[in-house]
Design brief:
The complex is a heterodimer of chains A (493) and B (499). Chain A has 3 domains: 285 residues, no CATH class; 129 residues, no CATH class; 58 residues, Arc Repressor Mutant, subunit A (Orthogonal Bundle), CATH 1.10.10. Chain A is 40% helix and 19% strand. Chain A has 15 helices and 17 strands. In chain A, strands 1, 2, 6, 7, 8, 11, 12, 13, 14 and 15 form a 10-stranded mixed sheet that branches. In chain A, strands 5-4-16 form a 3-stranded antiparallel sheet, with no helix packed on it. Chain A has a two-stranded antiparallel ribbon with strand order 3-17. In chain A, a hairpin with a 2-residue loop joins strand 7 and strand 8. The two termini of chain B are 15 Å apart. Chain B has a domain of 284 residues: Amidase signature (AS) domain (Amidase signature (AS) enzymes). By secondary structure, chain B is of the alpha/beta class. Helix content of chain B is 39%, strand content 12%. The chains are: A alpha+beta (493), B alpha/beta (499). The interface between A and B is large, with 28 and 44 residues.
């Protein structure tokens, strides 16, 4: 008998505001403990929260990007519980009326495209961190509390239970991850906890009602998410097949042992006593604000991907790869714009270079696309010299390496002048002149009678050897296409 | 020191007295009264004298405002930078505030001299000032009686002439009821007029800072300094600056209240009101009619539900607001505990008094899963209905008059064992907090055994200037606000003579 897996994800996205959601303290990561905690963040008596418009605006941006509804009036609520890293004894979140409702994210599965529905996205504040390590040696047996993270703005994005495998869950999470970075609301840094997921997992017989779910908390890498879900699915199936029943509970994934463990059961579930926060009037978002955010929204990745296929003539795969990150897509667009070409052939060449040499160099040096040393105008200049026959593919790679290496004043000049300077300095101009190539070919035919004889006897491989001799004689500068053509003509019977 | 703020301000400007002299008098009276009245938790003698010297310099250079050099006191629920702020609780017994509340900063900027912090019911929860970790405050008219609460210390400090004005906070009547019980003027402004930033929250949707003074004009002068938008409080209203004395300054006439319609709700004149209170209110209404006002009956049936509604909403908010007192970052922490759970429970068991615990328990209960709809949500609905009733009533009248409290002050200990009886003291005051509308209390008579009686005047949103004017016109033709507690006067005079 087969089992159907049902997964819904709750994703905590840290919004990229400079200051916190209800205070003016900085949100920068990695500062010394409690140096970025204001009176509001440490919940001194008498302090009050004031909403950060930047955080609200990012929530609106997200809502528009997923085609959700932006609630003109949403309500901040208090979620009450005691924990040392929760200074007020409650977390300000949104409960009954969130800022965003509905919306969809489209993922690509082996079976084709699939639309994942979102339930909601709501604003809330992050808690601080409890520190068990790195405390002063004389501190004794204590737990430290770092409130730098307390009050950091989060957008919690909740999906419907529409995902049917760990692969779909990962595809959704990756898509969401790329989207929040694309629209500039989150830095996407998973190591620093800027994007973390909780997975609600259950199994059922196809067609049966939803099974009892378990929630796996705090999955902060795609690999762990996949492993945790796979383990949990297997655990639930085995449990049921052995005659047991799944109990609703919260579980934690232990990557060292590759297993999920029970954290707390439903009976231990706390009563959070949600109620509207009396310190904060309802969050009102007017049409003008929404219209402005909409007008500032960049072209979305799915739209751009369709455009690259339809008008740039790229393959689905290239288009998908180029739109996997905003920076890469923007780089591609900038190269195309610099070349002011939109014909399929030219775009294909741009895509090949951006996804090939350029991406390889980016990965190799471990830097962001945005800080790549080769400006889009320079890559455009390089592609122009390939198109006009000045450079062979092999020469172009040499020029690219030099552009990337950044020596010889590459910082001061970019674009065509930078490329041409390298070509001139290194004497990399390709020889396409027919007379010159004919002279080279004649010389090789005269010097290599044995190979010529082999070719004439029907050995096609001998032709390549002759091309090689001509290229060597030209010190690699001869246009290989031209050499081919001239050689064929001269050797023709 | 029985002069008013206005009188002292005039004397300071005329240079017939210095702020240093007034401040020293105030400090001496505070010290003399403290063993009996217990009105203060913290006195800042050095700070007060330094502020007074600065005020005198400002007065000498002509760089002064109305309140420059006037000694005042703050209820100990308002944060005062560098000065202990206890909220009347063991939880914050040693807590030194690292910043000023907005109203504290505004009054500091206005040139006032801060004498100290006044006693109060713990976290502003109470109607008798018996719930203070620092002991009860006593009524200056009779030290065996309560001064009312929760701002009992501020009311007593003004009534006993220790300071000419003070701040309080009013969540369910905590300014008006003690003002009535001590025979002074206390104003609860419209919610949002005075910032709550730095007011240690009891019930955020109800808490309202406001002034105490001997008369309406002084309250208007204080409110001029206290009111104003504050971006740090999301519920603070951004409105044009008002001069709350403007109507009071209009020339007097025989019928200064001509055209004023005073609403009289039957609900404020029913059973359970002390006979002497009812009689004093009736006399006060005659006085108001004599000043030109007309009276009209209005119906406010929802007021009967205001106490139960209040005692659901206020504890609900309090249960959450007081969660931050957990012993982790500041305030009291139990000396011994086994784990984080026992640290919380012992810290809070030791740090909070009985009334605070009672309200945290009630509030936790009404917000709990399965009870939220029946209690909290229903209370919010009734709250809106009550507000609508008042809005409708103000279509027929300009102010609503009635007693501030059903009785005058009661003896210390008389209601200590019966919280519900104590809560019913708030029956006439809580509605203004539920609606957010302004209300004040002024003295209008005395009981046969010499305890003050308060007249409450309520009005619709932002009608403070009108309310203060009605009170002012009443005080122009009455003497109740000029009466001073005899026993305290004698004792204080003796103390001053000894200097």
């Amino acid at each position: 008998m087969t089992w159907e897996v049902v997964i819904g994800l709750e994703t905590h996205t840290q919004l990229s505001t400079a200051s916190k959601i209800f205070s003016g303290a900085s949100t920068a990561f990695g500062a010394a403990p409690n140096t970025q905690a204001s009176a509001v963040d440490i919940a001194l008596p008498g302090v009050l929260p004031v909403p950060n418009r930047g955080a609200v605006e990012r929530a609106i941006r997200f809502g528009l990007a997923v085609g959700g509804a932006i609630n003109r009036r949403s309500v901040f609520a208090r979620k009450n519980y005691f924990y040392p890293d929760l200074p007020k004894g409650y977390q300000i979140s949104q409960y009954e009326i969130p800022v965003v409702q509905r919306g969809t994210v489209t993922i690509t599965t082996p079976a084709g495209e699939k639309t994942v529905r979102l339930t909601r996205a709501h604003l809330e504040e992050d808690a601080g961190k409890s520190l068990h390590e790195g405390l002063p040696a004389d501190a004794g047996d204590v737990t430290g509390v770092d409130l730098n993270r307390a009050g950091t703005p989060l957008l919690e994005i909740v999906s419907e239970p529409d995902l049917r495998s760990s692969a779909e869950a990962i595809a959704y999470a990756k898509k969401l991850h790329a989207l929040v970075m694309w629209i500039g609301i989150c830095d996407g840094n998973m190591q620093e906890g800027s994007f973390r997921c909780d997975a609600n997992v259950s199994v059922r017989r196809p067609g049966a009602p939803l099974g009892t779910r378990c929630e796996i908390k705090n999955l902060n890498s795609f690999r762990f998410m996949q492993q945790a879900i796979d383990y949990e699915v297997q655990r639930q199936i085995e449990l049921i097949e052995d005659g047991g029943t799944v109990v609703q509970e919260t579980r934690l994934y232990d990557p060292d042992r590759n297993e999920t463990r029970s954290m707390r059961g439903k009976e231990d579930a706390q009563d959070y006593r949600y109620f509207p926060d009396p310190d904060l009037p309802p969050l009102v978002i007017d049409d003008a604000w929404i219209a402005r955010v909409r007008s500032e929204l960049p072209e979305l990745p799915d739209t751009m991907r369709a455009r690259l296929v339809a008008t740039h003539g790229l393959t689905e795969q290239d288009a998908a790869q180029l739109t996997s990150s905003y920076e890469l897509a923007a780089y591609y667009d900038a190269v195309c714009e610099s070349l002011s070409v939109e014909d399929a052939g030219a775009c294909k060449a741009v895509a090949n270079w951006v996804l090939g040499e350029f991406s390889a160099a980016v990965n190799r040096s471990g830097i962001d696309v945005a800080s790549a040393p080769v400006a889009p105008e320079s890559l455009a200049g390089l592609l122009r010299r390939i198109a006009d026959g000045t450079l062979s593919g092999k020469m172009a790679k040499e020029v690219f390496e030099e552009l990337w290496g950044g020596d010889a004043g590459a910082e001061s000049i970019v674009g065509q002048p930078a490329v041409d300077a390298i070509i001139d300095r290194r004497g990399l101009r390709q020889v396409s002149d027919a007379t010159a190539i004919e002279a080279l070919v004649d010389a090789v035919i005269a010097a290599q009678p044995a190979i010529v004889a082999e070719f004439r006897a029907g050995k096609e491989k001998a032709f390549n050897a002759l091309v090689g001799h001509v290229m060597r004689a030209s010190k690699g500068k001869a246009n290989p296409g031209e050499v081919n053509a001239v050689l064929r003509r001269k050797l023709a019977p | 020191m029985m002069q008013t703020v206005a009188e002292l301000s005039a004397a300071l400007r005329a240079r017939t007295i210095s702020s240093a002299e007034i401040t020293q008098q105030s400090l001496a009276r505070v010290a003399a009264a403290q063993p009996v009245l217990n009105a203060f938790i913290t006195v800042d003698e050095a700070g007060a004298l330094a502020s007074a010297r600065a005020a005198d310099a400002a007065l000498a250079s002509g760089d002064s405002a109305t309140l420059t050099g006037i000694p005042i006191a703050h209820k100990d629920v308002l944060m005062t930078n560098g000065l202990r702020t206890t909220c009347g609780s063991r939880m914050l017994e040693h807590f030194v505030a690292p910043y000023d509340a907005h109203v504290v900063a505004r009054l500091r900027d206005a040139g006032t001299v801060l004498i100290g912090k006044t006693n109060m019911d713990e976290f502003a929860m109470g109607s008798s000032n018996e719930n203070s970790f620092f002991g009860p405050v006593r009524n200056p008219w009779n030290a065996a009686y309560v001064p009312g609460g929760s701002s009992g210390g501020s009311a007593t400090a003004v009534a006993a002439g220790l300071v000419p004005a003070a701040t309080g906070t009013d969540t369910g009547g905590s300014i008006r009821q003690p003002a009535a019980l001590t025979g002074i003027c206390g104003l609860k402004p419209t919610y949002g007029i005075c910032s709550r930033y730095g007011l240690v929250a009891f019930a955020s949707s109800l808490d309202t800072p406001g002034p105490f003074a001997r008369d309406a004009l002084d309250c208007a002068l204080m409110l001029n300094a206290m009111a104003g938008h504050d971006a740090r409080d999301a519920t603070s209203l951004d409105r044009p600056v008002e001069d709350y004395t403007r109507e009071l300054r209009a020339p007097s006439s025989a019928k200064p209240l001509a055209g004023l319609r005073i609403g009289l709700p039957a609900e404020y004149f029913g059973d359970g009101i002390d006979r002497s209170v009812a009689s004093a209110i009736a006399t006060a209404l005659d006085t108001l009619r004599a000043l030109g006002a007309t009276t009209v009956d209005v119906a406010l049936p929802g007021v009967a539900h205001s106490v139960p509604v209040y005692y659901v909403i206020a504890p609900a908010e309090a249960s959450s607001n007081l969660s931050r007192f957990d012993g982790v970052r500041y305030g009291h922490r139990a000396a011994r505990y086994d784990d984080i759970g026992s640290m919380y429970s012992r810290t809070r068991a030791e740090g909070f008094g009985a009334e605070v615990k009672r309200r945290i328990l009630v509030g936790t209960y009404v917000l709990s899963h399965g009870y939220y709809d029946a209690y909290y949500l229903k209370a919010q609905k009734v709250r809106r209905l009550i507000a609508q009733e008042f809005v409708d009533a103000y279509a027929q009248c300009d102010v609503i008059a009635g007693p501030t409290a059903p009785t005058a002050a009661f003896a210390i200990g008389a209601k200590a064992d019966d919280p519900v009886e104590m809560y019913l003291n708030d029956i006439f005051t809580v509605a203004a907090n539920l609606t957010g509308m302004p209300a004040l209390s002024i003295p209008c008579g005395f009981t046969p055994n010499g305890l003050p009686i308060g007249l409450q005047l309520q009005a619709s949103y932002f009608a403070e200037a009108r309310l203060l004017n009605v009170a002012h016109r009443f005080q122009q033709v009455t003497e109740w606000h000029r009466r001073t507690p005899p026993a305290i006067t004698a004792r204080a005079l003796a103390a001053e003579g000894a200097r």
